């Protein structure tokens, strides 16, 4: 919104794209690959690590909660630098008021 409203330049969009790509490469993609591997595993031949994971998912409430919380790492909106809206607001108000 800030770019569309003229409150920030296009570099903010590049910063957002860079952050989203980093999240994809470091968090989303590895998780997706691992989830796909688990989903396609033969249930009769699970590794001990996978058996423990599924046991915890079924029995360990804290493990389930942590798993849900970890999805918050996918969000990057709070990492984007905010434009100086106070200055922009004063500039707009000054123009409207004829100052």
What does this structure look like?
With 99 residues, the chain is mostly helical. Helices cover 65% and strands 0% of the residues. It has four helices and no strands. It has helices spanning 11-39, 48-59, 61-70, 85-97. The protein is elongated, with a radius of gyration of 22 Å. Mean pLDDT is 78; it is low at 88-99.
What's the alpha carbon Rg, rounded to whole Å? 22 Å
Query: Quick one: overall form?
Result: elongated
How far from one another are the termini?
26 Å
Secondary-structure-based class equals mainly alpha
Strand content: under 5%
Mean pLDDT: 78
Number of distinct beta strands = 0
Summarize the main sheet. Answer: none
Please supply descriptive tags for the structure shown above.
mainly alpha; elongated
Protein topology:
Blueprint: H1 11-39, H2 48-59, H3 61-70, H4 85-97
Describe the structure in brief.
The C terminus is likely disordered. The chain is mainly α and 99 residues long.
């Amino acid at each position: 919104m800030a770019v569309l409203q003229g409150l920030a330049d296009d570099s903010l969009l590049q910063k957002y794209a860079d952050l989203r790509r980093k999240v994809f490469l470091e968090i989303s993609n590895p998780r997706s690959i691992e989830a796909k591997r688990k989903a396609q595993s033969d249930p009769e031949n699970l590794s001990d690590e996978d058996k423990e994971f599924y046991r915890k998912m079924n029995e360990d409430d804290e493990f389930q909660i942590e798993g849900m919380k970890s999805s918050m790492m996918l969000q990057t909106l709070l990492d984007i630098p905010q434009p100086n809206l106070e200055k922009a607001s004063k500039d707009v108000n000054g123009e409207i008021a004829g100052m």
